[in-house]
Sequence to fold (168 residues):
Amino acid sequence: MGRRRRRLPVGLLVTEEGVATYTPFVDFAATDEERLARACLDHLAAVAADAAARGRSLLVFHYASPEPRHARRFPPLPDGPAHPDAWIDLLPLVRAAVDSRAGHGLKIIARHGAGHVWRDTDPGGLQSQTWHAAAREGDPVAARRLLDYNEDDVRATRAVREWLRVRE
Fold:
């Protein structure tokens, strides 16, 4: 039986009228992934309800398939634009718009296309797993690096979305 990869923190970047607010969902001591996922999905549902109440629309963007696939594991799912089936995956749009010999991963496209810069000099999935393990052991530096990395990832997704819009 294979090892189950522990899910890392998640966060949402909500942008309205040019102001982007990042909200992380993390508890390094928690072993209950469902509680954190539920908090994130409930927050997203509240953002959608608030937008609708003010006559605004909501679009949820992500990069590649893991986010909606993992979200679907935690019913009940929010309705409308907050439902994972309504989220917009930027990866197929990038693949259709960008010819890249280096690949279409978020780090490649965000850096070399959109000009996004991560705060950490060597960000990546393997490093984030190492930081997560150290944060669970109480390392505040690792915890900060992991939260910054996650925030930079969602900001990179926004940068790619804006870059694609300019390329239209």
